[in-house]
Amino acid sequence: MANVSPTERTLDIIELLADYPEGLALTEIARRLNLPKSIAHRLLSVLAGRDFAVQDPVTQHYRLAIRTAALGLRFFGNIGLVDICQPIINRLAQRTGEFIRVSAAENGELVWIAKAQGSSNGLRYDPLLEPGPVLHATAHGRAWLATLEDTKAMALVRRRGFYVPTGYDRSLFSNEQELLEELARIRKLGYAISADESLIGMSAIGAAIPDRKHGSAVGAISVAGPSVRMTASRLEEVSDDLLAAARDLGDIWPIPRARIPAAAPT
Q1: In which order are the strands placed within the sheet that holds 216-226?
Q2: Cα–Cα distances in Å, from 243 out to 55, 82, 100, 164?
Q3: CA separation (Å) from 107 to 110, 160, 202, 218?
Q4: Which 3 state secondary structure label does DSSP give 123?
Q5: How many CA atoms lie within 13 A of 104 on its CB side?
Q6: DSSP secondary-structure letter at 12?
Q7: How many whole angstroms from its chain centre is CA 102?
Q8: Most buried among 94, 107, 185, 203, using CB within 10 Å?
Q9: Are 225 and 202 a contacting pair, CB within 8 Å?
Q10: pLDDT tens per residue across span 24-72
Q11: What is the C-alpha separation between 184 and 40, in angstroms, rounded?
Q12: Under a CB-based contact definition with an 8 Å cutoff, are residues 184 and 170 in contact?
């Protein structure tokens, strides 16, 4: 508890509740964040008072309010990101007939920002809204991790550990050595594959979105669908279209970069 500000603790609560749309009890929030119950209650009261959190009148659980997600959507709308990305991912959805998602990288995490559904009938993959992919447990996340140096990639994974949250069935990789070997393989191929992993019965292929100006990756894009359609050969078939879409997104990526002011003359 030492040297941790109320602001930091409030942000910890927001990040925790983002993974639990059904909400959590006050005692559970306090336990998970190692907070005294009285402090957790005070911070939650502030969030509820500003309409960033709500308390269910029946279960008494706290969950994030729609207002919280709306702020992110407002930000993306103001920079025009979704409008610019959407035509590219719509074309990829039409070509593959599968579900497309795009994420943006920020502060060592990926956040979902756009999607397109290419399947109009029969079996289709249409997941619930989530904050973003688990980096080590998805093709989407591993494709992005592979663009980083091994030490940085592992540091990001260690922040949360090799666990999978509620809603994930499993991860194909449970330790650093296995993951490092997979990242090396992804670098050679240019894309990552996940089969019957985060959701049994679904498979996906992911690729990083390159930033040609800065030599890094600004996010990732993936194609996902039922495993009965997205076989190993089918995943390989769509790889060219996926990589082309990733390059197209990199060419027009509109997220503003932080500007570093020039040093004052000495």
Answers
A1: 109-117, 99-106, 216-226, 202-211, 192-195
A2: 44, 19, 13, 27
A3: 8, 14, 28, 11
A4: coil
A5: 15
A6: H
A7: 9
A8: 203
A9: yes
A10: 999 999 999 999 999 999 999 999 999 899 999 899 999 998 778 777 7
A11: 43
A12: no
The token pair at 123 is: 């079996």
- With tokens 């197209």, the residue in question is 248
Angle 220-225-230 (CA atoms, 0-180°, nearest 5)?
100
Name every residue whose Cβ is closer than 8 Å to that of residue 134 and which is 6 or more positions away in sequence: 141, 160, 164, 165, 168, 171, 198
DSSP 42: H
State both tokens at 27: 């005692």
**What whole-number distance in Å separates Cα of residue 64 and Cα of residue 247?**
35
Written as six digits, the tokens of 52 are 């960033």
Other residues' Cβ atoms within 10 Å of the Cβ of residue 86: 14
Please, which residues have CB within 8 angstroms of residue 50's CB and are 6 or more apart in sequence? Answer: none
- To the question of pTM greater than 0.85 for the whole model, the response is no
Length of the chain counted residue by residue:
266
Per the CB < 8 A criterion, the answer to whether 128 and 22 are in contact is no
pLDDT digits (tens, 9 = 90+) for 173-189: 989 999 999 999 999 99
